[in-house]
Q: What sequence folds into this?
């Protein structure tokens, strides 16, 4: 029987997925986070890099690979709240239906501040939605990275990725991962590679993913170059964006995940991970 994978195809997983050779007997489909979350829970795929919050919510039936994640410590650049008033004054925020993780994170960050604006689903470009009466717009992924750069860019010799302003064109951009870091001092884990406890991936697939990740991280400038052209962004931006991710679910990432789980899904079942390479 074929083992079916479901990959979220955002640029941030390119260093793992671009060089991945699927072993015989494994097939893959791609989609946005909420599609892959649903596909895994419906049993339409056997493994997927899903929104970490869905892994937490379904910790009773799911397990995650022990050494794969999409995490950051500090800014992520692609999970952004675009807003036209200070956070404390926001009344109506447009959410994207593509994302489970960023919505859960935004809810935690608003609750921590004692804020409760109206949250509604609405798709489209942040700048357009801000003109249509929303005072905040949450966007993720490649389009959020592009819109962030359009608002706060361009890079110059004096202005690097870490010193760009947080506003431009009358819009402030709050990077939710950076906000999480300010609040907790922890990394933020956006995605883990999860599967049903009774349907773990064949070891050849996990090994192929490790080889592909080594290849991708070892040739990050090439990966960035390919995707920069596709995204219409400078290579410098994409290379820094990719370099900034933590792909190995290390101890600090697990702490961040645990902290988020306690805040976002109180009473969740214990989180289960497979054995790390060399363990057991
Ligand atoms: C950081 C990102 O991570 C992704 C965001 C997700 C979500 O918001 O549900 C899910 C998986 C991640 O790979 C991003 O795409 O901007």
A:
């Amino acid at each position: 029987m074929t083992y079916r994978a479901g990959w979220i195809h955002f640029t941030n997983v390119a260093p793992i997925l671009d060089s991945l050779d699927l072993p015989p007997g494994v097939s893959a489909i791609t989609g946005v986070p909420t599609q892959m979350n649903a596909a895994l829970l419906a049993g339409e795929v056997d493994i997927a890099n899903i929104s970490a919050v869905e892994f937490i919510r379904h910790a009773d039936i799911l397990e995650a690979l022990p050494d794969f994640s999409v995490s950051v410590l500090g800014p992520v650049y692609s999970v952004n709240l675009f807003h036209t008033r200070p956070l404390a004054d926001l009344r109506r925020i447009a959410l994207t239906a593509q994302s489970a993780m960023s919505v859960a994170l935004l809810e935690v960050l608003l609750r921590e501040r004692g804020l409760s604006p109206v949250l509604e689903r609405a798709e489209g470009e942040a700048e357009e939605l801000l003109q249509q009466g929303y005072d905040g717009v949450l966007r993720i992924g490649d389009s959020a990275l592009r819109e962030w750069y359009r608002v706060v860019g361009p890079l110059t010799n004096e202005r690097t990725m870490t010193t760009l302003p947080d506003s431009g064109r009358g819009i402030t951009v709050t990077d939710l991962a950076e906000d999480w870091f300010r609040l907790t001092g922890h990394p933020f884990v956006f995605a883990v590679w999860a599967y049903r406890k009774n349907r773990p991936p064949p070891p050849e697939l996990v090994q192929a993913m490790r080889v592909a990740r080594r290849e991708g991280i070892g040739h990050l400038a090439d990966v960035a170059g390919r995707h920069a052209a596709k995204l219409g962004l400078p290579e410098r931006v994409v290379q820094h964006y990719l370099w900034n991710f933590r792909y190995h679910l290390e101890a600090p990432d697990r702490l961040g995940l645990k902290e988020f789980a306690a805040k976002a899904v109180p009473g969740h079942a214990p989180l289960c991970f497979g054995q790390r390479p060399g363990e057991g």
User: Anything to note?
Assistant: The pocket of ISJ is lined by residues 8, 10, 12, 33, 51, 70, 76, 78-79, 99-102, 140-141, 144, 190-191 (CB under 6 Å). The radius of gyration is 18 Å.
